[in-house]
């Protein structure tokens, strides 16, 4: 009996010893160390499969960007090999896709990837924050969507990426990098979307960590001219994040967040390019000096950080299962961008960071901003057609934010001051969350159930049908007079008790 047990135990331990590395994941290798002519070598082992052939995809589009990027344009020298190192046929179909034969016998695929830009003043077809940038001796900005792909037939797999890099470089990212040795880092992601959602900045470290509640926030800075500046930026960001945390009920829904800031000296003026991610913001900033960077960054930081609510924690299936080749877009950009921007202007007044006059000025800014767009369009249609209607997209930051202001006041009115958009968002986070998407067509009904029957009509009129938002009547309820022809907002001289109590509930003033 004992002997048998021993043999069984031995068998178990030997089988563990000889266990193959996880074979249902994509295992990528990216060599930054030997970057040459603005190109890096990339290779990968694909998950075990039984396929005769497969279609390899690089993204045509990525979440949060509503123009075709065709990220396959950076790929060259695409080759597939079997385990004996023999070439297997691979044919490029178009910019973003390749057909690879005999997929089940492929041991390795390799290709080269070009950097998308070299300096901020350069003219490029795509927004720079969507591409990667390689400067061998100083900095790498890695957006995995331009380096890593997937097979259409083998989706929803984990990724492990091993990066070879300069021994002095440090990776800053929302994902955790494990240092295997001086020149090798490894990062894992639970799927493709998760990986491409977390860009990384590789350079000599200038990093500062701050703790906001339970969230570890990394501020990482790169500038050729200026070292040791992350602490200055972190101090500025910290104030805003603490106020955002209080605004969100004292608890943040993420454990880690990263601000990745690249600065480049340009002769004059100022330029900024950025792209939102769930747990990080990559900000590219050009200026002659750093004088105005902290202020500029605070503006970006407050909007981007609020995305930890939506889409990160509240999003539809279209976002969760984003199709990188032919995406079907969600109808709720009013929520993802409108609510995020509303929180960005609402938080400072609610947290007593600004006064009433400054708040009113921000509202007037949105009213004037909205004027440049077609305000008769349905916001749900603008959202699902965001790619075709790019000229209207920026209105989600204007009209979308003001719509959420009206919704906030309507909710306060119906709830006797107890519930506004802040409380609504908390209810939605509880019901959904990062791993549980909502059905696009259900959201308005769900919000109605969570709030008041009257809210369904609000969405019908102002989001689905595209009626002009009820700004004048909403602001009147909180004692503000909106002059529609002059586009001004004034405080009413002798507000009623009801107006005063509504205003108190709305902005705590
Ligand atoms: Zn945004």
In short:
Mean pLDDT is 93; it is low at 1-21. The chain is globular, with a radius of gyration of 25 Å. 33% of the residues lie in helices and 26% in strands.
Explain this structure to me?
The protein has helices spanning 2-17, 192-196, 230-247, 293-306, 317-320, 333-350, 356-370, 379-384, 390-393, 395-414, 421-431, 443-450, 454-464, 471-477, 497-507; strands at residues 26-36, 39-45, 53-57, 75-82, 87-88, 90-94, 97-101, 106-114, 133-135, 139-142, 150-151, 159-164, 170-173, 177-181, 184-189, 200-203, 207-212, 215-223, 256-265, 270-276, 280-287, 480-483, 488-491. With 509 residues, the protein is an alpha+beta fold. The chain folds into three domains: 22-125 and 143-202, Sandwich (Immunoglobulin-like); 207-302, Zincin-like (2-Layer Sandwich); 317-507, Orthogonal Bundle (Neutral Protease, domain 2), CATH 1.10.390.10. The strands form five sheets. An eight-stranded mixed sheet has the order 5-4-8-2-1-12-15-14. It has a five-stranded mixed sheet with strand order 17-18-19-21-20, covered by helices on one side. Strand 22 (480-483) and strand 23 form a beta hairpin. It is globular, with a radius of gyration of 25 Å. Residues 1-21 have low confidence and may be disordered. It binds zinc ion. Zinc ion (ZN) is lined by residues 276, 303, 307, 337, 340. Keywords: Hydrolase, Metalloprotease, Protease, Signal. InterPro entries: Peptidase_M4/M1_CTD_sf, Peptidase_M61_catalytic, Peptidase_M61_N.
């Amino acid at each position: 009996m004992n002997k048998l047990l021993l043999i069984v135990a031995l068998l178990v331990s030997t089988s563990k010893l000889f266990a193959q590395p996880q074979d249902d994941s994509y295992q990528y290798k990216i060599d930054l160390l030997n970057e040459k002519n603005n190109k890096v070598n990339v290779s990968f082992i694909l998950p075990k499969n039984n396929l005769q052939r497969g279609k390899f995809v690089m993204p045509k589009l990525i979440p949060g960007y509503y123009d075709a990027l065709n990220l396959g344009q950076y790929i060259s020298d695409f080759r597939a090999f079997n385990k004996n190192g023999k070439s297997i046929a691979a044919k490029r179909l178009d910019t973003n896709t390749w057909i690879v034969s005999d997929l089940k016998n492929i041991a390795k695929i390799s290709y080269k990837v070009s950097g998308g830009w070299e300096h901020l003043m350069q003219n490029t077809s795509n927004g720079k924050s969507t591409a990667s940038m390689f400067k061998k001796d100083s900095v790498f900005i890695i957006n995995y969507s331009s380096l890593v792909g997937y097979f259409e037939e083998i989706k929803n797999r984990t990724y492990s990426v091993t990066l070879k890099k300069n021994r002095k470089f440090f990776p800053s990212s929302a994902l955790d990098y494990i240092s295997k040795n001086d020149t090798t880092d490894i990062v894992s992601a639970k799927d493709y979307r998760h990986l491409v959602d977390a860009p990384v900045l590789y350079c000599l470290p200038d990093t500062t960590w701050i703790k906001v509640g339970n969230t570890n926030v990394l501020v990482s800075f790169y500038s050729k001219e200026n070292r040791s500046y992350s602490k200055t930026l972190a101090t500025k960001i910290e104030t805003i994040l603490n106020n955002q945390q209080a605004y969100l009920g004292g608890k943040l829904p993420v454990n880690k967040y990263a601000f990745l800031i690249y600065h480049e000296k340009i002769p004059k003026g100022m330029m900024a390019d950025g792209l939102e991610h769930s747990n990080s913001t990559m900000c590219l900033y050009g200026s002659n000096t750093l004088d105005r960077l902290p202020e500029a960054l605070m503006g970006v930081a407050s909007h981007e950080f609020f995305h930890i609510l939506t889409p990160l924690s509240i999003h539809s299936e279209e976002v969760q299962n984003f199709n990188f080749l032919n995406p079907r877009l969600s109808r709720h950009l009013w929520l993802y961008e409108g609510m995020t921007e509303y929180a960005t202007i609402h938080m400072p007044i609610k947290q007593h960071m600004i006064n009433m006059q400054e708040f009113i000025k921000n509202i007037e800014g949105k009213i004037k901003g909205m004027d440049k767009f077609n305000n008769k369009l349905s916001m749900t249609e603008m959202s699902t057609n965001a790619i075709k209607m790019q000229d209207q997209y920026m209105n989600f930051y204007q009209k979308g934010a003001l719509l959420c202001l009206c919704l906030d006041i309507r909710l306060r009115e119906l709830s006797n001051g107890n519930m506004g958009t802040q409380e609504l968002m908390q209810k939605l986070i509880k019901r959904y969350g990062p791993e549980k998407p909502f059905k696009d067509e259900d959201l308005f009904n769900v919000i109605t159930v969570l709030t008041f029957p009257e809210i369904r009509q609000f969405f019908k009129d102002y989001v689905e049908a595209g009626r002009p938002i009820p700004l004048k009547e909403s602001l009147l309820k909180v004692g503000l007079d909106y002059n529609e022809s002059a586009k001004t907002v004034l405080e009413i001289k002798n507000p009623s008790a009801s107006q005063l109590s509504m205003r108190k509930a709305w902005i705590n003033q």
